[in-house]
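Internal ticket #5521
Category: modeling
Description: The requester needs a full-assembly model to guide mutagenesis choices. All entity lines are attached below as received. Residue total reported by intake: 224.
Assigned to: D.W.
Attached entities:
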Amino acid sequence: IVMTQSPATLSVSPGERANLSCRASQSVSGNLAWYQQKPGQVPRLLIYDAFTRATGIPARFGGSASGTEFILTISSLQSEDFAVYYCQQYNNWPLTFGGGTKVEIK
Amino acid sequence: QVHLQESGPRLVKPSETLSLTCTVSGGSLSNYYWTWIRQPPGGGLEWIGYIYYTVSTNYNPSLKSRVTIAADTSKNQFSLKLTSVTAADTGVYYCARSSGSRRWFDPWGQGTLVTVSS
């Protein structure tokens, strides 16, 4: 399953809302996770099962879905949120990731 | 709290075998899926494969002919071997944990950069 993330880069001002898209080439049901990766750091699990925030993840991070499109919303960007975000499907083998969306400061 | 740490050579010659070990502390290998993931410089994430306890393995078809993942329960470690490496295998290699149908990855090891070069 190919996971396509868009846009590749998103320029956002602090305090603004960001919507990141991840589209699957076929149905993955709700078996989708989101990760955040800052430069030089390990990917950090944000969301699993498309909607559920992982332990310790702030409420400004939310997940939604419509068919094969999944959206990660960051409701009010904080300085620590500027990073690369990856989606990952775990409905089918092999497990696959999207190519990432870089959220940068506008 | 489970902690994972990768170890192994950072430089591998082309055509040779890349070997890495992940040491798990704070928990046992049983009842979880232990995974290797890699990331080329400036690139995205690629799932390599997993081992479930010592019972079964599953590999990415793109790498299957070159990959072996094994576990050593006496040392609470699992390992990755990737044969016939080329420069395209250069990248950061992470070990991570998932469980059952909950096949997202958490936690992750710190990652280790492996460079393939003569």
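Resolution: model delivered.
Comment from assignee: The mean pLDDT of chain A is 97.
Ticket closed.
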